[in-house]
Every structure is written in structure tokens, then in C-alpha cells.
Write a structure and sequence with these properties.
The strands form 7 sheets. The chain has a 5-stranded mixed beta sheet, with no helix packed on it. Strands 1-29-28-27 form a 4-stranded mixed beta sheet, with no helix packed on it. A 4-stranded antiparallel beta sheet has the order 2-3-4-5, with no helix packed on it. The chain is mostly beta strands. The N terminus is likely disordered. The protein has a domain of about 170 residues. β8 and β9 form a beta hairpin. The longest helix has 6 residues. The protein is built from 3 helices and 29 strands.
Amino acid sequence: MGKTFLSMVFGITCLIVGMVPSFAGWEVAEDCGDTTNLLGVAFATQENGAVVSENGNRIMFSNDGGMTWKPAKVDVDLSRHNMFDVIFSDTKTGWAVGSYDTGAGKRLANLLKTTDTGATWVNQPLPEDVVYSNPFRVWFDNKGNGWILTYGGHAIFRTSDEGKTWQQIIFREVHPTIKNNAGWIHTGWHVFDSKHLIICGQYGIIIETKDEGKTWTAIDTGLTDLTEEGLKDLFFSDEKNGWAVGQKGVILHTADGGKTWEKQSSGVPNSLERVQFINDKIGYAVGPAIYSAGASADRYGVLLYTEDGGKTWKNVNPTTASLRGLSVLDAKHAWAVGGKGGSASEPKVMVVRCIED
């Protein structure tokens, strides 16, 4: 490959790595610059995608499948922003959310939109109740329907007119733990469509709505240590098969649409922050490194892969980097992003790329 594995990991700032499902073919494409930790990634096609980062360094886009990356043009100053999530609703249109600390104890939200597959981004005005929230995840379809999931609180926001107006959806009363704890944090979801979504979060709680948030149902996951088994993300490959991931390597699987859940063994203690499946067999999950003390990692970041529906998982992360974002198109096109997790020797920014044979 022209460089040794060690020189690839420690010799450059940003790694772009390729893999195939057989775990072969890892390669570094190029150094993509001095960017901060990447938190989100989305690809609209096999060629066109975007990544977002914390600390407002930049949004980057690729038009060659992730081989090379360029800074996007953004019409707002992102120097203080954490941009948490990015998605595409069609092959051209994408959305990104984040927020920044004003220094006065408040966070102000931003919703950005692209219509040229990530090359340029324009700030979308938000109403006051959304502006003063902390948007963490975003979803849009190609008909103008959208959702914003905030970090903490007891509400999410929905739109049916491409974000021109937003409705606040409150679900505090749905679960006793949520009702009695104003600090319940919801960090992940799966959106089936504009009416049906499932949200997971702290204390192992999962809640579901099938009517645009008018009513909510609490789902029993069977977790017993709710303080340690907070859930970070959800993904359903179809109406029946779904997976939830979270702290301490927790992976749950349902085969009946969420009515019942069973634990799967991830084989790692890392917190798992994103999960996606291609079908009911092939899937990925990512997580950051573990640092208990000092600058050295007790456990490197993970990229888990399964081809038997989660019965067995294999860590295929070829580097030491923490990974926090995930975008999967098909069995041969997937991307994971992350970066520095606490050690000067850890790659500062990482884009992991899955390519064809």
C-alpha cells in the first residue's frame, strides 16, 4: 500500500480507510487536513457525502466516495459550533444540525441545508423554542417532512413544510422514569417515516409513536441496570428486526417490532454510539476509545461488524481512533467517522470507508 500500517496510523492527521465485508483491502487515501473530531457522516450516493465536526472547525464534502474531502462553503460562522448530525433526504438535498454556547449559559441551535450534495450550506431560520434547544439528530424525507431530536428535555420538533414552521412534541408523561426525571437524556432514534419513530436514551428507555407524536408508548427492553445501560442509538432493518446499542457494549435485538428484546454479546466494553444494518443479517456499530486515567487508552475505538444478525460481532477497526458517526448504503459502501478521544497519539480525525472489491 506504499506505507506501513504504523506510518499510516501515526504519520498523518486524517485517515481515510477502505474495507470490504471480508475485512480485507484497508488503505489510506490521503491526509484530509487539520480538522476537529468528526461526529456525523452521511452519503447521498456512492460518490457524494458530507461530514460534520465538533468545535465548529468545518463541514466537509466528498464527491469521490470518500477518497478525498474538501471544506464546504457555509453562510454562518461555525467557529463555536458543535455540529452533531447530517443526513440527505435525496441525492442533492441534505440537512445538518448543531448548536453553540453563547457564553451566557445558553445554547443556540442551527439547522443548515444543502441543495448541491454538501458543497454549500445555508442556515435555515428556526423559531425560538427550537433555537434555544440543543439539536442532536435530524431527519428529513423528500416531501418536506422532518424531525429534530434534542439532547435532553422532554420534547422533539417536527415540520411538514421543509422547516418553515415547527411543532413541539412533548412526551414527558409517557414513562414513569421520564416523568420523574427532568434530566432524562434521549440520544438516539430510528425514523421509519413522518409518522412513525422510536427514541432511546438514558436508563435504557425506549419510546415509540406511530401518529406523528400525538401518542407515545413506552417499550420494556428488559434492562435491569438502567443507570449503566443507557442506550445511544436504534436501527430497524424492517418493521420487525431492530437493534439498540449503548453503554458498556450493550446491544439489544428485537425480532417482533420491539415488543420483546434480547441481549447480544458485542464482545467489547466500549460505549456504542451508532448502529446501522443493511438487512436482517449484515450490520455495523461504532464506538469511541475508553480512557479511565491518563493519556493512554485502556481500549481503542471499535467498528463492529456482523453478518449473522448480531449473534456474533467482530471488531474490524484497523486503527486506534474513536468512532462516533456511521453511514451505510449497502454491503460494499459504508462510512464511519470519529477522531481524537483523549490521547495525542490517537489519530485526530478519522474517516473509515467501505469500498467494493
